[in-house]
Design brief:
The protein is an alpha+beta fold. It has one domain: Double-stranded beta-helix (4-Layer Sandwich), CATH 3.60.130.10. 23% of the residues lie in helices and 24% in strands. Strands 3, 4, 5, 6, 7, 8, 9, 16 and 18 form a 9-stranded mixed sheet that branches. Strand 13 and strand 14 form a beta hairpin. The longest helix has 14 residues. It is globular, with a radius of gyration of 20 Å. It starts with a helix and ends with a helix. Bound molecules: 2-oxoglutaric acid (AKG) and fe (ii) ion. The site of 2-oxoglutaric acid (AKG) has 10 residues, from strand 17.
Length: 359
């Protein structure tokens, strides 16, 4: 692109994005329209963080017993005929990671197609759908097919299952005065519960014209990058995993917010694919062994308004690029589901063993 073209383009979108004020909140125009169309009352703005903190207070006790979960991908047709047959196009982004489905609206998928989508997300780590007409309620309903919903942080008014992902709002209302998104760096969402996230569905309604991409990396491929002796060494090993944020413990509120720790296997097996994957997290591990050299195991996604990404936190790491530095508006909603407690199975295969690929 010539410098002149860059000038013109940046001049148009560096303009202050249109937004409307609700209480102390300036909600971007596109998001406002999406919410109004969905009958959501924004007159009070988004629920403030201190109120949300209360929902965190019992984080230690949040899962006192097992949460029922059976992976919809495990019962799906391996060939995914219902889903692929209805799609206009199925485009893989890289060899291992990332697939775009063209020509389908998530809100119209049948239970059979959603089962197949769960398997596809498990296999490909992340699946994208552009141009979605999707209210927060529809996002909740579609995603609820994949498992019990767990919401954290500020949410859409009247839709407590849908978190608001909007770093400008976080910056002005949560961590003043400056705030770099907590989503930078390679991570999986939430490692401090007994049963952590499975499929997570992020939908952006308002995005910068450039910048603000998210990268995803395959935990299956990262595992395969390790030498066979190192794989043997880490198979079955456990690690203490620490929460990214401190939380208030309702059993000991006077102690103030504390980091929450859980012990999980560092290699886990995905119940739908049966494949082993590396299960590591940013706050606990500083870098992913082998990841520097593993470009083919990563995919990068540039958002357009109305795009949904569904990724599987069990077998995927992701990293939100901060290159837009909150200078342009980026606003979305996210619905996350809980999956099984991480487990290791010594009899399980790696993806490459199962598919007969070379090391
Ligand atoms: O897009 C972002 O800034 C956040 C992405 C992320 O890490 C998440 O939603 O878990
Ligand atoms: Fe994340």
């Amino acid at each position: 692109m010539s410098p002149a073209a860059v000038e013109t383009e940046s001049a148009s979108h560096d303009a202050v994005p249109k937004q409307r004020r609700f209480g102390t909140f300036d909600v971007p125009d596109v998001a406002t329209k999406r919410m109004e169309k969905a009958g959501i009352d924004l007159s009070q703005g988004y629920p403030e963080y201190p109120a949300e903190l209360k929902t965190f207070k019992d984080i230690h006790n949040l899962q006192p017993g097992p949460i029922e979960f059976s992976d919809p991908g495990a019962r799906a047709d391996r060939e995914k005929k219902a889903l692929f047959g209805a799609a206009k196009e199925v485009r893989h982004l890289t060899y291992y990671c990332g697939t775009e489905i063209v020509g389908l609206q998530l809100k119209d998928l049948t239970p059979t197609q959603l089962d197949e989508l769960a398997l596809l997300v498990a296999e490909r780590n992340v699946v994208f759908f552009r141009d979605q007409d999707l209210s927060p309620q529809q996002q909740r309903d579609v995603t609820g097919h994949f498992g019990p919903i767990f919401c954290q942080g500020p949410h859409v008014p009247g839709v407590p299952e849908a978190s608001v992902i909007w770093s400008q709002f976080f910056a002005s209302h949560i961590r003043k005065p400056t705030f770099r998104t907590p989503f930078q760096g390679w991570h999986t969402d939430i490692v401090h519960l007994k049963q952590n996230f499975g499929i997570t569905h992020l939908h952006y309604d308002t995005v910068p014209p450039y910048g603000g991409d998210i990268l995803w990396a395959s935990g299956y491929a990262a595992y395969n990058k390790l030498s066979p002796s190192f794989r043997d060494f880490i198979d079955g090993k456990m690690a203490v995993m620490r929460s990214g944020d401190p939380y208030i413990d309702e059993n000991d509120p006077g102690a103030g917010p504390k980091y929450v720790e859980k012990i999980h296997p560092i290699v886990r097996v995905h119940p739908a694919t049966g494949w082993k994957c590396l299960y590591v997290n940013g706050p606990w591990v500083l870098r992913i062994l082998g990841l520097e050299k593993a470009e083919s195991d990563m995919c990068r996604w540039h958002w357009t308004p109305g795009t949904s990404a569904l990724w599987d936190n069990r077998c995927t790491l992701h990293n939100a690029s901060w290159d837009y530095e909150n200078r342009v508006t980026r606003h979305g909603t996210r619905v996350a589901t809980i999956a099984e407690a991480p487990y290791f199975d010594p009899k399980a295969k790696s993806m490459r063993e199962d598919l007969g690929l070379e090391d």
